[in-house]
Amino acid sequence: MKIDDLEQMESEDLSTLPSAERRKFLKFGLAVTGMYLGGSVLSLSSVKNVHAAGVVPEIGKYPYSPHYSMVLREKLCIDCERCKDACVKTNHVPHYGFRTTILEKRRSLGGEKFETTFMPVLCNHCNRPPCVRVCPTTATWKDEKTGIVVMNPGRCIGCKTCMTACPYNARYFKEETRAVDKCDFCLEARLSKGETTTSCVEACPADVRVFGNLADPESRVSQLVHSPETMVWVLRPETGAVPNVFYINS
After folding, report:
1. How far apart are CA 17 and CA 15, in angstroms?
2. Which range has the worst mean pLDDT, 42-51, 63-72, 146-155, 178-187?
3. Which of 24, 125, 231, 244 is at 20 to 30 A from 72, Cα to Cα?
């Protein structure tokens, strides 16, 4: 199979391919960049094209230092929800709200057989965040040092425009503060106090979530994202938001 043929295989579900065929993708240095929808991958591109599109920046070309990112090893998620519980406790999330959640996907294997996988989701801390662009009061912005998208509840007027603009439905309105709330990679609760990782990562028993500095070639997140043998994808790349949360199958 030619590389040109592979790059035209949109909507192809890699999990239906034989293991030998999947290995061909890795040998060609291909990366999955699309979003799962009903168990299918919507787009497939070479690593070179991924870099050119800005979906995964090349090593040494990161705008922030540290450039905090998270890698989600989707196949390992068992939906124990310990990450959610830890987030609620650490960030004082009300019972009706969320900073991270887990989506369930079911794919038919034929007949009455199904494969169920779980997809953790959270704020993607985009390099070009639509929420920041639409906020009329600068209540949300990208931290100049870390690139984390943060909120100032005192500036928020509760218009919910940022909630509408978010491609990942990762924000909610917090009644107690009358302001929008969201994941901040535990910047306020942990990172600013000397911790090196988020509460959800620390709580995960299956090593699903990996957090760190993507700009550091020695960091685990950088090695996972840039490994030529790793298939990497992001959610909704067509929005141009350039997210910093990456999904892999290994």
Report:
1. 6
2. 42-51
3. 24
